[in-house]
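Example 4.3 (complexes with small molecules)
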Amino acid sequence: MVPILKDCSIRIPSGQLWMLLGPNGCGKSTLLKILAGLLTPTNGALYVRRPKSYVFQNPDHQTNELRFPANGFCLGVLMMEMLCGSRFLKETNLSLQIPEASLTMQVVMPTVEADVAFGLGRLNLTNSEVRSRVSKALEAVGMSEYLQRPVQTLSGGQKQRVAIAGALAEACKVLLLDELTTFLDESDQIGVIKAVQNLLDISGEVTALWVTHRLEELEYADGAVYMEDGRVIMHGDAASINKFIKAKQSSYIDRINS
Ligand SMILES: Nc1ncnc2c1ncn2[C@@H]1O[C@H](COP(=O)(O)OP(=O)(O)OP(=O)(O)O)[C@@H](O)[C@H]1O
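Answer. The structure with adenosine-5'-triphosphate bound is encoded below.
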């Protein structure tokens, strides 16, 4: 048995944007899925405010097929794992049983407005409450003018912002964001980070944890966590983590060149 995570102790203050960094395979996504409630750790204690939302790396997984009203993001991840062919994931210290029922329907959301409103169906709101929540959420991510646009016509960064607005409309308190900017160009990348920053500023009580490989994104963070080999090596203010990672990188380059 090889544990994936060990010695992972972090605390993210409410209302802040923190980033989670580390080399490939160090356990960032696993930790994020545990925080989202998608995986259950064999040991340890966990406290995450609710409602919480998990936003995917690939916006097409979020906005078209994989958001369902009952427990949208959970089903989304389960379906993604199924689509990837690992219906029963058995990990050394983590296991996840995916139900037998195969969910193959495709939900097509025609407009940005309908997409953002989708998760509100279960909340028993009036039409005007739904409209108001959708419009506030889209405003927070700078997408108000796209209300009637078909989602398929949006750019990757715009789709990410719509996915974040969906979480926001559901009044989430915790946003778990998995490498959102991987497929985005520089201007979309900055647009998405700023949208998250803006909604944290507006709400004052949404907390976000953002997984990334891009060091330059640290400048937007209130704090950061650096992991290696399943462990949290350092956490604290973003500038110190940035310095720490850069020093590691340059000593690695020195070793290669010597
Ligand atoms: N479903 C799975 N089945 C088996 N092993 C897994 C599974 N998911 C993750 N792992 C293993 O757990 C470890 C941590 O993976 P994880 O995806 O959390 O890393 P990561 O830091 O997010 O990596 P990356 O930066 O490449 O996305 C890796 O060794 C990975 O191979």
